[in-house]
């Protein structure tokens, strides 16, 4: 599990060490980790170190200090280093170390701007160490001009952000442009929220966390990301004597005369995600299509209360005039069973929900939801601050909210939040959300009652609904990526995501089988 923190949490964790006079040690560890990551990245690209050119953009605070110390380490490895000081001052010890190591120092000014931006554009490595967790707002003045010129320039070099790309808010992921997009962000002590939430994540590139000795002082993370080992532990596995009902039945209320395919794709997503059985409820013409496309699905005509299931999926492919389907959706939400409420169900929700109801809006649908709740955020505002928006939506509805995007965020009403970025941009295709709703519905039906499995990885009580939704997003994203990779990186259609899901699931669970085998490998073999 990747844990992320706010800047304030990280600074509080640094406090006891700063009070003990360990500030220099922390900074040198951070700088050493940053320089090491630059060296590793250059080596992995087959670039030589000796003689290659590094430009450190150094702000006046400790972030600039990290950059200057890292520049000193790199100069010691034979690299030609230039520090561009963007403020009226520089970290004194960092600057002294940089100069001792033979680095060249330039001060940024309006006159020097064209020459320095040209030099940075031609450098093999640019280290962005202007602003870190102590920043207020984005880049200003000549530093903003320099970064704007660099961001637009034709560069071939590596851009490495020190702690976080300057201009990205560590706590929220909001970005005040211009921001220099990094290939790699080396972050200290723990990942920052802003690196795992859009739009900050757009600028972060690959994120490497360097431990600096504050880790034992860090509190509960503010944001988490499920990784391979977590997925392997959390995916449900059928018991030896399982039967289809004990494995979980998902009721699907989706599709309409206008969008019958959404019902098919939701059912395909659910079937591919291990559910014991899918029951479909909807208009006869849609039910016909579902039967023909997925003969495994049992189509029912009754009401919600007449169909025994462990979880419901409602809303995919439904419109505001599908009254019968909307009534079923409302009944499902009132049933006290776990529900994933997608697309057409979102405008029909009661004002107050519970955390076992998982809403799956994209940014536009979330903006509409806010409007209905009397909170005027438009789509652009949601996209500019996804983390704040998803948390706000969870607080205001009482539901678990999953905000779909390049980075998918899931928030519980009390703030527990997951961030998953497992997919590919090819996932932005019609029907992809219907498959996702199917996958989450299937997982709710199977894993909902299994409180113990989640608490083993530190996810307590009702926070598991958010974890289940995050698990669904991770599987869906990985299946989409696998489908695209099978097409040599080419495009995918939504059905292809469902087709790739069982193998994706299998590969993830092999990890947990391997862990179990390792635990038991001391036992005597059978003779
Ligand atoms: N604590 C530690 O020991 C460790 C900290 N570490 C590192 O320190 C970083 C945090 O350092 P920090 O607190 O010095 O803040 P930082 O982000 O460098 O910038 C703030 C400076 O810039 C200024 N400023 C603010 N906004 C501005 C703007 N928009 N445009 C221009 N200037 C602006 C502001 O000055 P002011 O305006 O307040 O006079 C202030 O001087 C952290 O990210 C990590 O890299 C690691 O080494 C581990 C050990
Ligand atoms: K930075």
From TrEMBL:
K(+) binds at residues 63, 128, 166. Residues 10-220 form the YjeF N-terminal domain. InterPro entries: Carbohydrate_kinase_pred_CS (IPR017953), CARKD (IPR000631), Nnr (IPR030677), Ribokinase-like (IPR029056), YjeF_N_dom (IPR004443), YjeF_N_dom_sf (IPR036652). (6S)-NADPHX binds at residues 62-66, 132-138, 163, 262, 317, 362, 434. Binds 1 potassium ion per subunit. The keyword Nucleotide-binding applies. Residues 227-508 form the YjeF C-terminal domain. Keywords: ATP-binding, Isomerase, Lyase, Metal-binding, Multifunctional enzyme, NAD, NADP, Nucleotide-binding, Potassium. SUPFAM superfamilies: Ribokinase-like, YjeF N-terminal domain-like. It catalyses: (6S)-NADPHX + ADP = AMP + phosphate + NADPH + H(+); (6R)-NADHX = (6S)-NADHX; (6R)-NADPHX = (6S)-NADPHX; (6S)-NADHX + ADP = AMP + phosphate + NADH + H(+). Its EC number is 4.2.1.136, 5.1.99.6. Its cofactor is K(+); Mg(2+). AMP binds at residues 404-408, 433. Bifunctional enzyme that catalyzes the epimerization of the S- and R-forms of NAD(P)HX and the dehydration of the S-form of NAD(P)HX at the expense of ADP, which is converted to AMP. This allows the repair of both epimers of NAD(P)HX, a damaged form of NAD(P)H that is a result of enzymatic or heat-dependent hydration. Belongs to the NnrE/AIBP family. In the N-terminal section; belongs to the NnrE/AIBP family. HAMAP family: NADHX_dehydratase, NADHX_epimerase. PANTHER family: ATP-DEPENDENT (S)-NAD(P)H-HYDRATE DEHYDRATASE (PTHR12592:SF0), ATP-DEPENDENT (S)-NAD(P)H-HYDRATE DEHYDRATASE FAMILY MEMBER (PTHR12592). This is Bifunctional NAD(P)H-hydrate repair enzyme. The gene is nnrD.
């Amino acid at each position: 599990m990747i844990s992320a923190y706010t800047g304030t949490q990280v600074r509080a964790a640094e406090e006891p060490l700063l009070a003990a006079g360990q500030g220099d040690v922390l900074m040198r560890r951070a700088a050493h980790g940053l320089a090491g990551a630059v060296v590793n990245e250059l080596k992995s690209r087959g670039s030589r170190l000796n003689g290659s050119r590094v430009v450190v953009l150094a702000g006046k605070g400790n972030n600039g200090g990290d950059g200057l110390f890292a520049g000193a380490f790199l100069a010691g490895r034979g690299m030609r280093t230039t520090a561009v000081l963007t403020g009226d001052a520089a970290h004194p010890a960092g600057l002294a170390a940089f100069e001792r190591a033979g680095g060249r120092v330039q001060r940024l000014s309006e006159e020097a701007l064209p020459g320095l931006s040209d030099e940075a554009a031609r450098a093999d490595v640019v280290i962005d160490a202007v602003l870190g967790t102590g920043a207020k707002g984005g880049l200003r003045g000549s530093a903003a001009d320099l970064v704007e010129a660099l961001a637009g320039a034709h560069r071939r070099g590596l851009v490495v952000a020190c702690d976080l790309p300057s201009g990205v808010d560590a706590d929220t992921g909001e970005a005040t442009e211009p921001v220099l997009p990094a290939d790699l962000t080396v972050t200290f002590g723990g990942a920052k929220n802003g690196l795992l939430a859009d739009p900050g994540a757009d600028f972060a590139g690959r994120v490497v966390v360097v431990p600096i000795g504050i880790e034992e002082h860090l509190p509960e993370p503010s944001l988490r990301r499920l990784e391979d080992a977590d997925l392997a532990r959390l995916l449900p596995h059928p018991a030896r004597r399982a039967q289809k009902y004990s494995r979980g039945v998902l009721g699907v209320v989706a599709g309409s005369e206008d969008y019958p395919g959404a019902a098919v794709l939701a059912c395909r997503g659910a079937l591919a995600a291990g559910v014991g059985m899918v029951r479909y409820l909807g208009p006869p013409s849609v039910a016909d299509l579902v039967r023909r496309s997925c003969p495994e699905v049992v189509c029912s005509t009754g009401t919600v209360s007449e169909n025994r299931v462990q979880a419901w999926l409602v809303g995919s492919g439904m419109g505001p005039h599908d009254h019968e389907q909307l009534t079923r959706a409302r009944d499902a939400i009132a049933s006290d069973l776990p529900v994933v409420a997608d697309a057409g169900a979102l405008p029909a929700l009661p004002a107050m929900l519970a955390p076992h109801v998982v809403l799956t809006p994209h940014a536009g649908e979330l903006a509409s939801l806010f409007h209905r709740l009397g909170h005027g955020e438009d789509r652009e505002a949601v996209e500019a601050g996804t983390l704040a928006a998803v948390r706000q939506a969870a607080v205001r509805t009482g539901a678990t909210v999953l905000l779909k995007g390049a980075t998918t965020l899931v928030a519980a009403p009390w703030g527990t939040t997951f961030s998953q970025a497992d997919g590919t941009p090819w996932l932005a295709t019609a029907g992809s959300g219907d498959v996702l709703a199917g996958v989450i519905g299937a997982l709710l039906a199977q894993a909902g009652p299994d409180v113990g499995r989640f608490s083993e990885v530190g996810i307590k009580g009702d926070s598991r609904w958010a974890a289940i939704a995050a698990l669904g997003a991770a599987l869906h994203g990985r299946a989409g990526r696998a489908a695209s990779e099978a097409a040599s990186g080419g495009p995918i259609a939504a059905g292809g995501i469902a087709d790739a899901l069982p193998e994706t699931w299998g590969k993830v669970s092999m990890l947990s089988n391997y862990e179990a085998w390792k635990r038991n490998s001391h036992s005597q073999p059978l003779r």
